[in-house]
Amino acid sequence: MPSKRNVENLEALTGVLRAAQGSFFLVNYQGLAAGPTAKLRKAVREKGGELIVAKNTLIRKAMGDLGLPPIEGLSGPSAVVVFSDPAAVAKTLKEFAKTNDKGIPAFKAGMLAGQVLDAKQVEALADLPSQKELQAELVGVLSATLSNLVGVLGAKAQELVGILEARVQKLEAA
Question: Is residue 123 classed exposed, middle or buried when 0-12, 13-18 and 19+ CB atoms within 10 A define those classes?
């Protein structure tokens, strides 16, 4: 029979994963002391994510309760990282791993909108620009296109004004 604490932890984890809508990473955090772990949690939180340490059996059970496909590599100490911007959080985790000689946290696997990702795919996400950077790039492309359109329309209007002025001068001279 499961303990009351495990039942409460399962309910909390299931709620977090439900809110994440099938999008999270699994990382190995073993080897980080309390201080660096707190710094990692803070860095992830600043990017709109949350790092939750949970037992693998609870993670499996929560995923099963939500109808999510099983993930391979769910062994050893695991932490679940939920996020609003996958690229920004993955980048934060990757950068944090570079700050220590053990390379921790290490990606184990992940899930993005219900699709299972392996560690390499999660790491590839870390190399993508963040959602805000992509949005800014899109705005730049759109504004440049609109600016060009305004320039072309303005030139045609100026050309029309020039033709009309020439016609007026010709009529005045006659």
Answer: middle
